[in-house]
Amino acid sequence: MAKYSFILNGKRVEWEGSPTRTLLQVLREDFKLTGTKEGCGKGECGACTVLIDGEAVNSCLVLIPQVEGHEVLTIEGLSKDDQLDRLQESFISEGAIQCGYCTPGMILSAKALLLKNSKPSRAEIKKAISGNLCRCTGYTKIITAVEKACSE
Amino acid sequence: MEVAYYSPVSWEEAVKLLAEDADHSKILAGGTDLIIQLKQKNVKPAAIIDITRIPGIRDISVNSNEVCLGSAVTFTQVAEHKVLRGKVPVLTEAAEAVGSPQIRNRGTLGGNIANASPAADVVPALLALDTLVWVRSIRGERKLKLEDVLVAPGRTNLAADEVITKLSFQIPGENTKSAFVKLGRRNALAIARMNLALVVTFEAGTRITEKVVMALGAVGPTAYLYRGVHEALAGRQLTDEAIERAAVLTSEEVAARLGTRSTAHYKKEAVKGIVYEAFYRILHSEYGAQ
Fold first, then answer.
1. Is A150 near chain B, with CB under 8 Å?
2. Average pLDDT in the B139-157 region?
3. Nearest by CB to B102, which of A20, A58, A66?
4. What is the CA radius of gyration of chain B?
5. Contact B48 A42 (CB under 8 A)
6. How many other C-beta atoms are found inside a 10 Å radius of the C-beta of residue B266?
7. What does the DSSP 8-state code read for residue B42?
8. Are the beta carbons of B100 and A130 separated by less than 8 Å?
9. Are strands A2-8 and A11-17 parallel, antiparallel or unpaired?
10. Cβ distance of B101 and A42 shorter than 8 Å
């Protein structure tokens, strides 16, 4: 058992437990932040995507000690006081959500892109979400939703 | 027995920890291979040694004739490095081909070598650049040519108590162009079915090839340097016929390598396409020297 301290959705938190727990497990089971999903557990689907220091990562492949001293952002941290992020609003308005399982990871991958590039091309958007699989939508509305979030 | 987790902040500390129980310790950098192995219980270490907090391990330095990369430099760092893209696009393209943005943000060059997948994407590029691998243990430091590190799928010839600290290679000369091509089942999140790194040196101001360095991956137990194309093309003009010849030779090489494996039929044909693609990029790329 060891203690790890990091910033989670803007707040400093402390966690104690086994160092072989993944960030995904800790977020969902210990912090009860179930917005981040497990799709494959192997880094091949992106459903578990969160941001560490603004970069998209597969949280199923991060061991909890590795986030010590870093900033983690989950989908829950994107909205502020019930105010949705522009990306969240455009996913809704563009119909880019069907079952919703890929959505948190998809939005966070898009968020990571927008943090570095506020006016990405369509090709850049596709590349940014290339690590997020969606079985429902066929991606078109997702890409449009990201474009829409940038144009406002 | 709880797994011990260490985050050393110096190489001295790291190699000392590793030496305590080298056979039951695992080095952690990006984790995109190791953590899957841990979950699948393919490895059951007594200790995990996270080397990412060692100063300098994520540094990229480029001087007038050499590039030096810390072993925990991520694929994203390489992909975003403008100077590297200008000088060695083969490495940039290889780094960009790995997995997905999420994997590239964590995965490292050293890990790609140490994990020793036959389909590793940056390995052919590093081979074609004649990369040196710097390795450390409590017994000291040594450097090896990358081709001498790779042994078999999942195996390098590094000792259990050794850890890769950095990589280095000479920057190719002025008249050198390079490219990398990956053939995967889809555009992203794909393991390479074949990959190819090509570094071509021309005689100044001409299209006469002086040297052709080609590394092939995912057609054998490790990526390796194939010298047949150089032997056929050196001193000759790089015409369409020459490229066709290169494609045929590489196809024969792949067929010979794969023998009676079921993948031989597909790969020996498909490799021609990636040879054409690589030479096309070399002839039309704005990067690398003119």
1. no
2. 97
3. A58
4. 19
5. no
6. 14
7. S
8. yes
9. antiparallel
10. no
Is B234 near chain A, with CB under 8 Å?
Answer: no
pLDDT digit string, tens, across residues B56-75: 999 999 999 999 999 999 99
Residue B42 touches chain A, beta carbons under 8 Å:
no
Q: Is the ipTM of this complex over 0.95?
A: yes
Lowest mean pLDDT: which of B5-14, B107-116, B278-287?
B278-287
Under an 8 A CB cutoff, do A19 and B3 touch?
A: yes
The answer to whether B243 and B214 have CB atoms below 8 angstroms apart is no
Give yes or no for A42 touching B (CB within 8 A).
yes
A53 touches chain B (CB under 8 A): no
CA atoms of B64 and B201, how far apart (whole Å): 18
Match 């997995």 to its residue by tokens.
B99
B105 with A44: Cβ contact below 8 A: no
- Confirm if A105 and B102 have CB atoms less than 8 A apart: no
Q: Evaluate whether B167 touches B132 at the Cβ level (below 8 Å).
A: yes
Contact A8, A72 (CB under 8 A): yes
> Virtual CA dihedral for A52, A15, A63, B138, nearest 10 degrees?
110
Q: Which two tokens stand for residue B270?
A: 């498909």
Beta carbons of B102 and A65 less than 8 Å apart: no
CA distance linking residue B241 with residue B226, whole number of Å: 19
**Single pTM value for the model:** 0.96
Tell me how far apart the alpha carbons of residues B181 and B186 are, in angstroms, rounded to a whole number.
13
- Structure-token pair, residue B132: 């040196």
Beta-bridge partners for A56: A51
Write the CB contacts of B121 (distance below 8 Å, at least 6 apart in sequence). Answer: B94, B95, B97, B98, B112, B180, B182, B192, B195, B217
> Structure tokens of B108?
């490292």
Nearest to B200 by CA among B230, B170, B241: B230
The residue to which tokens 């190719």 are assigned: B172
**Chain B environment of A56 (Cβ under 8 Å):** 101-102, 105
Is the distance from CB of B233 to CB of B245 less than 8 angstroms? yes
Q: Which of A106, A128, A25, A151 is nearest to B38 (CA)?
A: A25
Give the number of other CB atoms < 10 A from CB of residue B174. 11
Does residue B18 sit in helix, strand or coil? helix
Residue B134 and residue B159 in contact, taking contact as beta carbons nearer than 8 Å: no
The answer to whether B169 and B199 have CB atoms below 8 angstroms apart is: no
Residues of chain A contacting residue B97, judged by C-beta atoms under 8 Å apart:
none
* A66 interface with B at CB cutoff 8 Å: yes
Counting DSSP H helices and E strands in chain B, the numbers are 12, 14
Q: Chain centroid to CA A90: how far?
A: 16
